[in-house]
Amino acid sequence: MPRSDQRNTSRYWHDRGLAGLSLLQADFTTHEYAPHRHDGLVIAVTEQGGAIIRNGGQTFEARPALLFVSNPAVPQAARMGRSQRWLYRSLYLAEPALSEVRRHIGMPHEPHFVQSALDDPELCKEFASLHRELTDAQDGFRELELLVAAFGRLFARHGAGHGRVEAVPTGRRLHHVVELMQEEFRDTIQLADLAETAGLTVFQLIGLFRRATGLTPHSYLVQLRLNAARRQLRQGASLAEAAAASGFYDQSALTRHFKRCHGITPGQYVAAVRG
Question: Among 75, 122, 199, 218, which residue's beta carbon has the most beta carbons within 10 A?
Fold first, then answer.
């Protein structure tokens, strides 16, 4: 019996965030993947429905909360099976993207995954958020933070072989990193530069920052900029002036972060203060 919803749409982005990193967002109702292989590492998150996937010698049903991982050059195929729809997001890491991610995490060797289907709802949410952030491509600092955090946890939890994630060191202070961020938050700050200042990998810096402050480096940077923006607004600056003076890309970026953190828009904040 033919399906009534013949959706079958997909969008593809190449070199997103890093050279060799590609994204796919697909919404299928009838599609079937013939046997094929990818040169790089493949990660896929099912958001709705599912499909029957054959990857190497493993066959399983893709579904939400189940993360699909395929090692490079492993034959794979997929069909709709009993599902009426398969809505999913996937990431493809070819060289040099895979080497760059390993460098930021601190892994000298490429990890290997024994299982293709990982029952890890938390990682599924992380990779879905990462995919959306890379699709929007609005904040390079946050994109790299999410990328390294998600792949670092994936490699640490499920990687095998010679790939090993270096533990976050104890006893290190973030004094110089925090000072640098407080002095230069109005300018463009690179996450990799902050990690180099601390003598850490990006993955280690993210973990240490969480442990010491309860925030990620990006969240801390946003707080610094919001604090400055509120001061500017109280002194009578316009929204555009406050955004530029506090380091936000534009007025819409200020509004988005302001509402996310404070529950009101900058305009509502100004009205309350001046009222």
Answer: 218
Pick from 18, 71, 65, 6: nearest CA to 41: 71
Residue-wise pLDDT for 6-45, tens only, equals 579 999 999 998 999 999 999 999 999 999 999 999 999 9
Cα distances (angstroms) measured from residue 66 to each of 53, 84, 238 = 12, 18, 47
Domain definitions of the chain by residue range: 9-120, 167-275
pLDDT digits (tens, 9 = 90+) for 99-154: 999 999 998 888 899 999 999 999 999 999 999 999 998 899 999 999 999 999 99
Please provide residue 17's backbone torsions phi and psi, each rounded to the nearest 5 degrees.
Answer: 90, -45
Class of domain 9-120: mainly beta
